[in-house]
Amino acid sequence: MACCVVTVLVAGLAFAYRDAIQVALFFVALTPDHDYVDEPPPERPDYHNPEHWAALPNRDDLTDTVPVGDYTNIQATASVDVFFIHPTTYYSPDSWNQPLDNSEANEITDRAVMQGQASVFNGCCRVYAPRYRQATLYSFYDNSNSGSQALDLAYTDVVTSFRHYIEHFNGGRPFVLAAHSQGSRHAHLLMADEIVGTSLADRLVAAYPVGFGLDGTNGVLICQTATETGCQVTWNSVGPKVANPLAAPEHICVNPLSWRADTSHVGHDANLGAVSFRVENVPEQGVADAQCRDGNLVVSEIRSEHYEQRPFGRDNYHIYDYALFYLNIRENVETRVETFLRNRSPSDTTSP
Fold first, then answer.
1. Is pLDDT above 80 for 165?
2. Using one digit for the tens of pLDDT, what is the confidence trace for 92-101?
3. Which of 51, 170, 71 is nearest to 121 (CA)?
4. 3-class SS letters over the chain
5. Average of pLDDT values for 178-198?
6. What are the backbone dihedrals phi and psi of residue 210, each rounded to the nearest 5 degrees, phi first?
7. Which of 261, 280, 284 is nearest to 271 (CA)?
8. How many C-beta neighbours within 10 Å does residue 48 have?
9. In angstroms, rounded to a whole number, what is the distance separating the alpha carbons of residues 74 and 274?
10. Rounded Cα gap, residues 81 and 337, in angstroms
11. For 88-115, b where at least 16 C-beta lie within 10 A, e where not — what string?
12. 248-275 pLDDT per residue, tens
């Protein structure tokens, strides 16, 4: 028995060591060779320019994509908006912040994120997603001041784009705030700085700042049920042997299979459908189970071969936070929107 235990421990350590080396080498290749202050920032975006938006509801773009099945894109007529802040898609060591004309980053934003993540909201809402001078991926691991300065610059663009959206696009409609990874870092700050304590808080249907370690200090309540509104949900998906989780025990975890912030395990049969647009847009039921544990969302087993890319380590499912629970998210945001609109007084209603 002792030798079996030792074997298991050694195997686990080997996986953890391999993941640590893999991730370390990955980030070494992405490290800028200069400090933030040694170069001028890229030209700032102009949010009057449609090209500086990754998604707008009145044009054809990849947020219009729907999975195979009885799903409809209703952006043209929706009475609720989504303001979506995309994750890091700029992996270059050439600069600390993405130039807005970087075609490679924009292509990843459009195909991997607008199609694979933001499209989940097109069944309830008009989707607005700004491009911004996002911080390069290494900024989150930088020990100097350069990474934090790059993130601060990115956040100034997010604030500017959100204010532009409210002034020029929103028209008084209720809205959902959604994001992933770096975008969720910015969404967390945005809720505290621009929404909580203002009239906008009354129009916030819900927030989905997914894939970032959030501690709930932004002032928005944590959702406790699938129908609660004016609250936020987030999770960080990992496997049982994760070596480098992105969340800690003090961070929020709301289970996207139950929409509860508890530690109950919810089985694969509650998963309505994962969708990997990288491979095909056919939903696969029962791909992932889920349980909140120590601030992370633990998936015991992914029952599909479509989720094998793991740039952050073998059991780190960060890039699949939306994909593994795609149809559950789609159903849930539609439910929260319906609840919000049903409970809203007629005097609060703004026509699309």
1. yes
2. 999 999 999 9
3. 71
4. CHHHHHHHHHHHHHHHHHHHHHHHHHHHCCCCCCCHHHCCCCCCCCCCCHHHEEECCCCCCHHHCCCCCCCCCCCCCCCCEEEEECCCCCCCCCCCECCCCCHHHHHHHHHHHHCCCHHHHCCCCEEEEECCCCECHHHHHCCCCHHHHHHHHHHHHHHHHHHHHHHHHHCCCCEEEEEECHHHHHHHHHHHHHHCCCHHHHHEEEEEEECCCCCCCCCCEECCCCCCCCEECCCCEECCCCCCCCCCCCCCCCECCCCECCCCCECHHHCCCECCCCCCCCCECCCECEEEECCEEECCCECCCCCCCCCCCCCECHHHCCHHHHHHHHHHHHHHHHHHHHHCCHHHCCCC
5. 98
6. -85, 150
7. 284
8. 8
9. 21
10. 10
11. bbbbbbebbbbbbebeebbebbbebbbb
12. 999 999 999 999 999 999 999 999 999 9
Contact predicate 75/64, CB 8 Å: yes
Q: Give the pair of three-digit tokens for residue 161.
A: 């784009």
Which among 181, 303, 290 has a CA at the least distance from the CA of 237? 290
Tokens in use for 232?
Answer: 């936020």
* pLDDT-derived band at 25, boundaries 50, 70, 90: low
Two structure tokens written together for 297: 């969302």
Residue appearing with tokens 């969720």: 184
- Phi, psi (degrees; rounded to nearest 5) at 26: -60, -45
Structure tokens at 207: 């927030």
Q: Other C-beta atoms within 10 Å of 116: how many?
A: 23
Q: Note the pLDDT of residue 278.
A: 83
* Tokens (6 digits) for 17: 């060591």
In whole angstroms, what separates CA 194 from the centre of its chain? 19
- Phi, psi at 293, each rounded to 5°: -145, 120
Tokens in use for 238? Answer: 């990992």
Distance CA 35, CA 47 (A): 28
